[in-house]
Design goal:
The complex is a heterodimer of chains A (about 525) and B (about 500).
Chain A lengths: L3 H14 L4 H24 L8 E7 L2 E6 L4 H17 L10 H20 L3 H9 L2 H11 L4 H30 L6 H6 L4 H18 L9 H7 L2 H11 L1 H10 L4 H6 L1 H20 L4 H26 L8 H30 L10 H4 L1 H15 L5 H15 L9 H28 L15 H19 L2 H4 L24 H6 L6 H8 L1
Antiparallel strand pairs in A: 1-2
Chain B lengths: L3 H20 L5 H19 L10 H4 L6 H29 L12 H19 L3 H19 L6 H32 L4 H8 L8 H5 L2 H18 L7 H8 L2 H28 L4 H23 L5 H21 L11 H30 L10 H4 L1 H15 L5 H17 L5 H27 L13 H19 L2 H7 L2
Classes of the chains: A mainly alpha (about 525), B mainly alpha (about 500).
Chain lengths: ~525, ~500
């Protein structure tokens, strides 16, 4: 069943190549993917897990199968994020007719790649699907991008290719050291890796995945790429594809806990680089697109903070909030940043510029654009009631989870204290940008601007609704994530997890109920 | 049917075609080409029903091995030759320009008959297990190529290529003979199985004195490896590759790049096997091969970056790929339940490389036919002029770069897997892995440069480009094979017999 999510975009690609209308086909396909994705997620939660899996062996030695399934709740959340953002991306941006084919093919290919990566339960395809996005990204940025597009296209491609190959080495080493019989997640996660190999593997994974997530100092590709890429590509890349690296780290962390722990200080140093260094860089941006690009890099730091808390605790049992916090923030950030990039594109189409100093007073002529952009900007800062808030709060709580009052702060606590200042930094640049664009007197560029047309409004409204609903009921997302040890409880004897202190997570981590009943429960 | 009949039949086919060409006045060159293709296709089938030399033939069995790798490399040789002869059809317009009376096909018949002899040589190389028979088979291939490379001898480029290939080929032959002499001098045998026994502590023939001081033996091995580096296109014998590839007729270039390289590698594996297997020489052999691999990866990939001619780019790419294969060889492994051994990994790499590279050369023949140029700039605007060809080329180049979900990924995947696993015991292999990273990242740049030309740039001409039917068929099927094997590689493993 889960294979449908890959097959729909692939069939749409073939249809477009054979001459059907690219726009209609892509929008229809992403709509269908959204419906399928949500249905499958609900089915998964109601307990129909077996029949969702899909598996075909493709190579006997080493044993590789094309297996697609929701491996755990984290996969479900990431798949939901992918289908929602793809849906919005296929309805955002505007392309010239002569490039329509490439434009929509790229959207579908990237969406298929992201979905494949999140659904694959085999290490080989987990890695392989992610690379599907590389060529379309290169072509679309180079051909349809803005600014210094050619140089940026090269930079992105080389960076991502290098990150991927380092990652590949890490994964191969991991497979070799685990001695697993096949490359399936089941077999690999069941195995254990000798401690002396863990450290090296952890470094490869950190650098490889880190480059893909734009971890400081491997981040310099991201902001220019998002600024230059056509809106839907930026939405998909920043919103979905970039989360692959974090997803991978969280997924493989249980195999190399001690190795990762050895790099804890290193991780913390880098994530503070993301939050503070890139944060200050963001403040100084003069264009909306590079500002959004940098802000998206900066926010990766928070998710890494949750990861650092998990590394510090050594396992999900030690810090049961860290992983749900990371997943929730990944989801919230993905939706927010996609919405911001989609709306920035509309600002540019209305006014012809993204230079902050040339803009102003757009709120008068385009009130709904101003409202929606404001909503996304507030979400990005972390306003309560929107999805990111729940995520960020949980990240900060996770940071202090293992701290005993009265004792010294550990590395993670110190990092959390610094990271809290990042919220202020976000507020500074986001509010400033909002003021520059929407408030004050109109400028020559914004005088003749008009408001969003209904088809333009639709994707943003969908994303805004998701932000609000998840912001008010974070358990919709958290409900997918199982308690630590649930999946493996049969295989491994784990000590009973200490009950989480957050009241919201307590009801959230009850996998027995369906999403619908939980809403009423919260109300 | 005994296996060695295959080679005999291929040689007979070649002789028949030569005689037909020489004595029949009515046989057209096209007929010769078709007969060659038909004959070789007919031989594909018995390949899988042939039997190894029987016990009665023990004397032959000392020279001739017929294991699953021999079958696979014979298959590769036959397949390459068939595809190259197909490619020659659409190239004939270019070839005919440089005949005695330009424009006619007068004197081009040998161009379709000679590849059959090269094929016989490659098939024999796949089975050779004695240094003397290796030498003879190798020379059969090399001498055939001397003619094929310089076939357009009225064109300066092809002539220059021929001379360069001849000189370096002769030099490498000298190295090979000299190396064989050293090995014979130290081990008193040219048989690879006996060399293995001499180096094996468990065997009755074990020569403890030699194992304690194997310098002379290793010197001989190094000389032989130099000669084989010429065949597979590895540093330091790679200097001929760019010029010869550029000057030679494109089907010959493709033949050199795929067939000659594959045959060179199976011989290299067979020769290296005893040296890797013996604890006395394992470490030094690893060092020698790793040095070759590292330098080859570095030179091939870095020198490819500034190229502006697609044929030269493919030449450097061919060096780079030889480097990755050598990395798998340097990380010698006998495999276990979950991992391929080096023979299998190398076979896998070369099998997929064959499909992708020949696809790329078919594209080149089409572009050359339409634009009369091998430059990358000739690809400009292809995305508009023929979207299908541009798409296929993109897939093939992505596969050459080693992007996952294409067949090209698996070769690199196995090479790196072997290297990383062997690095657990001999740390020195991390150098190879590190250089491999640099090579792969550089690869993305220079292969995508061609993709850039096709899509980002508008060319001088905007009219639709028509692909001749044979090339069209070949390009589409090779691209599809690249994609299918990228997701479902099992068929290659079946052919290797893993």
């Amino acid at each position: 069943m889960t294979a449908l999510l890959i097959l729909i975009p692939l069939f749409a690609i073939i249809a477009i190549l054979r001459g059907s209308d690219p726009r209609k086909t892509a929008q229809g396909a992403t709509g269908l993917m959204l419906v399928t994705g949500v249905t499958l997620a609900l089915l998964w939660q109601t307990g129909v897990k077996k029949s969702l899996a899909f598996s075909v062996p493709v190579l006997s030695k080493p044993s590789i199968s094309l297996s697609l399934d929701f491996y755990d709740g984290m996969s479900v959340v990431m798949v939901l994020l992918s289908v929602i953002v793809s849906f919005a991306a296929a309805r955002s941006g505007k392309c010239e007719d002569q490039h329509a084919k490439l434009w929509y093919l790229a959207i579908l290919l990237i969406a298929a790649g992201a979905l494949g990566a999140f659904l694959a339960t085999d290490l080989f395809f987990f890695y392989a699907f992610h690379e599907l996005a590389l060529i379309p990204t290169f072509l679309t940025i180079g051909l349809l991008g803005r600014g210094d597009r050619k140089e940026i296209a090269w930079k992105v491609t080389i960076y991502l290719a290098f990150g991927s190959i380092v990652l590949l080495a890490g994964l191969l080493w991991l497979v070799g050291a685990s001695g697993a019989e096949n490359l399936g997640f089941e077999a690999i996660l069941e195995s254990s890796i000798p401690t002396d190999a863990q450290r090296g593997i952890a470094l490869f994974l950190l650098v490889g995945f880190g480059t893909l997530v734009s971890l400081f100092p491997f981040h310099s590709w991201a902001a220019p790429a998002y600024a230059s890429a056509p809106a839907p590509i930026a939405m998909l890349h920043a919103g979905v594809l970039k989360k692959f690296g974090l997803y991978g780290l969280l997924r493989l962390f249980p195999l190399v806990p001690e190795g990762m722990r050895g790099w804890l200080e290193f991780i913390i140093f880098l994530l503070l680089g993301n939050i503070l260094w890139v944060g200050f860089v963001t403040i100084s941006q003069k264009r909306l697109d590079t500002l959004l690009g940098n802000s998206s890099v900066m926010h990766m730091g928070y998710i890494f903070l949750a990861f650092a808390a998990l590394v510090d605790a050594g396992s999900e049992v030690g810090n049961p909030i860290a992983k749900p916090a990371a997943v929730l923030l990944m989801f919230g950030h993905g939706i927010t940043v996609a919405m911001l990039f989609g709306l920035a594109d509309r600002i540019e189409r209305q006014t012809g510029t993204l230079e902050l100093r040339d803009l102003g007073g757009l709120g008068k002529n385009a009130p709904s654009l101003a409202f929606l952009f404001g909503l996304a900007a507030m979400a990005s800062i972390g306003l309560p009631g929107l999805a990111n808030f729940a995520g960020e709060v949980m990240v900060f709580i996770a940071g202090f989870r293992s701290w005993e009052p009265g004792t010294q702060f550990g590395w993670v606590q110190i990092a959390t204290v610094f990271a809290l200042w990042g919220v202020v930094i976000s507020a500074v640049y986001m509010l400033r940008a909002y003021r520059c664009i929407f408030q004050g007197g109109t400028t020559p560029t914004t005088e003749n601007a008009t408001d969003l047309s209904p088809p333009d409004k639709r994707p943003a409204v969908v994303l805004a609704t998701v932000l609000l609903v998840v912001g008010l009921f974070p358990n919709l997302i958290l409900g997918f994530i199982e308690k630590p040890g649930d999946r493996k409880s049969a295989a491994r004897e784990l000590p009973a997890p200490p009950s989480p202190q957050l009241s919201s997570t307590e009801s959230a981590e009850d996998p027995g109920r369906s999403a619908g009943s939980r809403i009423t429960n919260n109300e | 049917m005994p296996a060695y009949w295959l080679e005999v039949l291929v040689v007979l086919l070649g002789l028949f075609l030569l005689f037909l060409e020489a004595f029949s006045t009515s046989a057209s060159k096209e007929l010769i080409r078709r007969l060659a293709i038909g004959g070789l296709i007919l031989l594909l089938l018995p390949l899988y029903f042939a039997e190894p030399p029987s016990a009665k033939n023990a004397e032959l069995a000392r020279f001739y091995v017929f294991d699953s790798y021999a079958i696979f490399f014979k298959f590769l040789a036959l397949l390459t030759t068939i595809l190259v002869l197909f490619m020659a059809y659409d190239y004939r317009k270019v070839l005919n320009r440089f005949t005695v009376d330009p424009g006619t096909e007068h004197g081009t018949g040998e161009y379709y008959a000679l590849p059959v002899f090269a094929c016989a040589g490659m098939m024999w190389m796949a089975s050779a297990r004695d240094l003397v028979s290796i030498f003879v088979a190798l020379e059969l291939v090399t001498i055939t190529f001397y003619i094929l490379v310089a076939f357009m001898r009225r064109q300066v480029g092809s002539l220059e290529a021929g001379v360069k290939y001849l000189i370096l080929g002769a030099l490498s032959t000298a190295f090979l003979v000299y190396g064989i002499a050293w090995i014979y001098g130290t081990t008193q045998t040219t048989e690879l199985a006996r060399i293995a026994a001499v180096l094996d502590p468990q065997s009755a023939l074990y020569n403890a004195q030699l194992a304690a001081n194997p310098t002379a033996l290793l010197f001989g091995l190094a000389l032989i490896l130099l000669a084989l580096a010429f065949k597979v296109g590895a540093v330091p014998m790679h200097l001929w590759i760019p010029d010869v590839y550029q000057g030679a007729p494109t089907p010959t270039t493709a033949f050199l790049s795929v067939g000659s390289k594959a045959a060179g590698f199976i011989v290299a594996l067979r020769i290296l096997d005893p040296f890797f297997a013996s604890p006395a020489t394992h470490e030094q052999t690893t060092m020698i091969v790793l040095t070759l691999a590292g330098l080859t990866i570095l030179v091939g990939n870095l020198a490819a970056i500034p190229q502006t001619n697609f044929k030269r780019l493919l030449a450097y790419s061919s060096i780079a790929h030889a480097g990755f294969v050598l990395l798998a060889v340097a990380a010698w492994s006998t495999g276990d339940q979950n991992t391929l051994n080096t023979y299998q990994a190398v076979s896998f790499y070369l099998g997929t490389y064959l499909l992708i590279t020949l696809g790329a050369f078919f594209v080149l023949v089409v572009i050359r036919g339409a634009e009369d140029s091998d430059e990358i700039s000739a690809f400009e605007g292809l995305g508009r002029r023929n979207p299908l060809l541009a798409l296929c080329t993109t897939v093939l180049l992505a596969a050459l770069a080693g992007l996952p979900l294409t067949a090209g990924f698996f070769g690199k995947f196995f090479a790196f897997q072997l290297a990383i696993q062997s690095a657990a015991t001999s740390k020195i292999l991390w150098w190879g892995v590190g250089l491999g990273f640099v090579g792969v990242a550089a690869g993305f740049y220079y292969y995508l440069k061609v993709v850039r030309s096709m899509y980002w740039r508008a060319g001088p001409s905007a009219e639709a480009l028509v692909i001749p039917p044979i090339s069209r068929c070949a390009i589409i099927s090779l691209t599809l094979a690249t994609l299918v094997l990228g997701v479902w590689p099992q068929p290659v493993l079946w052919l290797i017999g893993g």
